Amino acid sequence: MKTWGGRFSERADASAEKFTGSLAFDRWLWPYDIAGSIAWAGALGRARVITDEERDRIVKGLEGVRRELEDGTFTFRAELEDIHTNIERRLTELIGPVGGKLHTGRSRNDQIAVDERLFLRDAIPRLDEGLRRIQQVLVDRATEHLDAPMPGYTHLQRAQPILLSHHLLAYVFMLARDRDRLRACGAHADVMPLGAGALAGTAFPIDREALARDLGFAAVSPNSLDAVSDRDYFIELLAAVAIAGMHLSRLAGDLTLWATSEFGFVEFSDRFATGSSMMPQKKNPDVAELMRGKSGRLYGNLMAVLTAMKGLPLTYNSDMQEDKEPVFDSVDTLLAITDVVPPMLASLTFRVDRLRQAAGEHFSTATDVADYLVRKGVPFREAHEIVGRIVRHALDARVGLEALDLGTLRTFSPVFDADITRAITVEASLAARSATGGTAPDAVRRSLDLARTLAR
Ligand code: ARG
Questions:
Q1: Are β-strands 219-220 and 191-192 bridged in parallel, bridged antiparallel, or unpaired?
Q2: In ligand 1, which atom is closest to the CA atom of 112?
Q3: Which of 113, 128, 271, 322 is most buried (most C-beta within 10 Å)?
Q4: Whole-angstrom distance, CA of residue 392 vs CA of residue 222
């Protein structure tokens, strides 16, 4: 029954079989396993290890197996351990003993490595497109609210006025780096491991470069031990996905906070909120909360594979079979997030009046008062001290900066003039920050142009 049965005299214990089998999750690799096997049959033919006629029978047989897998008539057999053996066994059932020639010079160790790399080739563009779609909506919402001011925060304390568009675009640039990381991972994975054999290389005259071309890889692995024993391409993907998940969890964190009655900056559409089974008044931002919460499993998946790989002696070890479920889960999780987030973002209602009002509260332009003094020649350190005292005074008097008249201001510094009134408006504060990357409307317009190209 087993592909390796010859050496054994007792059959595997049911518990061991269940514990070591991987079919439950590696079955999803079947499209890549078939593609790798068809290419391998071609390589064996080219090397004259099998005849052209044998190759054609094997390839036709594999295509038959593929059809069964596609239309769901394939019978998976858990006792055959994994997807590789399941496919090979079915091939032999369909075409007879010649099917047994396919595994010549090949090991499941280089086979799984090629399957996983082919899987990444499919998964990465889908993840990339998902992130791009989020960028696109953020760019659209930023365009719509290009000039809307809001309070910016540090330490979650009111800091300085910013534009809502500037805030939204921050995420577009984060996601652009996430997409770069995915691309880099794809490039690192674009190396063909077949021909590494179990670990030492294949003993048959395989033209690995031609095989790499057949499978669309840019290069062949230069070291067979490395080829069968590393999973860095998966770890890189898990890291890239975890970082993207972290970014998206922060966006979710902003939105859930902004949706509170305390903030009141944004309202979720009913289509992307849920109610409470007990409290009739509740409207919960569930989608955003889960978008935030799912970063936990993305980090966990990264940690799981990093930890499973740590300290493993070269080369292949069965521990490495633990790499697949975390990767599949991270890919599925990020895709689920990128499915729901674009329409959720598109349906948000930003409370621009509330944002505008809040932008000017709580001494948000105090830095601009200090900058005003600096422009009149006061050293910044001194200006900071003076404005600190003004804020203290205003707090005691329970008024805002704009309520202080010139006479009062002059008791703090003689350089104050009538033009201070204009300098401490939200608009002036925003407009002053026009250096590249700042929140001035002009600067944001320029960064929006860049963001648009990144979201393409
Ligand atoms: N199921 C294995 C994995 O996921 C495939 C390679 C198995 N090789 C072996 N000798 N058991 O990594």
A1: parallel
A2: 5
A3: 113
A4: 68
The answer to whether the CB of 108 is under 6 A from ligand 1 is yes
DSSP calls for 316-333: --GGGGGGHHHHHHHHHH
- Token pair for 87: 């496919």
The token pair that represents 408 in the structure block = 């009062």
DSSP 220-262: E-S-HHHHHH--HHHHHHHHHHHHHHHHHHHHHHHHHHHTSTT
Asked if residue 57 lies in contact with residue 95, where contact means CB atoms within 8 angstroms, the answer is yes
The residues with which 349 forms a beta bridge, in sequence order, are 267
Confidence class for position 343, pLDDT limits 50, 70, 90: very high
Q: Which atom of ligand 1 is nearest to the CA of 323?
A: 4
The residue from 15, 103, 249, 276 that is catalytic is: 276
Residue 173 CB partners (closer than 8 Å, separation 6+): 451, 454
Residue 1 reports pLDDT greater than 90:
no
Residue tagged active-site, from 155, 261, 277, 318: 155
Residue 12's pLDDT band, with cuts at 50, 70 and 90, is: confident
Cβ 305 under 6 angstroms from ligand 1? no
- Pocket test residue of 81, 233, 321 for ligand 1, highest count of atoms within 8 A of CB: 321
Does the pLDDT value for residue 2 go beyond 90?
no
Could you give all domains of the chain from N- to C-terminal order, each with its CATH number?
Answer: 12-104 (1.10.275.10), 124-152+162-356 (1.20.200.10), 358-454 (1.10.40.30)
Average pLDDT over residues 315-334: 98
| pLDDT of residue 135 exceeding 80 | yes
For the cut 90, the answer to whether the pLDDT of residue 276 exceeds it is no
Question: What is the DSSP track for 25-68?
Answer: HHGGGHHHHHHHHHHHHHHHHHTTSS-HHHHHHHHHHHHHHHHH
* Alpha carbon distances (Å) from 326 to 24, 39, 273, 285: 13, 28, 29, 27
Q: Report how far ligand 1's centroid is from the alpha carbon of 320 (Å).
A: 8
Count of all residues that appear for the chain in the document: 456
Mark whether 155 is an active-site residue: yes
What pLDDT does residue 7 have?
Answer: 85
Residue closest via CA to ligand 1's atom 4 equals 321
> Is pTM beyond 0.90 here?
yes
Site to probe by mutation for ligand 1, drawn from 19, 318, 327 as the one with most ligand atoms within 8 Å of Cβ, is 318
- Best mutation site among 81, 82, 230, 309 for ligand 1 pocket (most ligand atoms within 8 Å of CB): 82
Q: ∠ at Cα 212 (209, 213), nearest 5°?
A: 90
Nearest to 27 by CA among 72, 84, 70, 79: 84
> Would you say the CB of residue 308 lies under 6 angstroms from ligand 1?
no
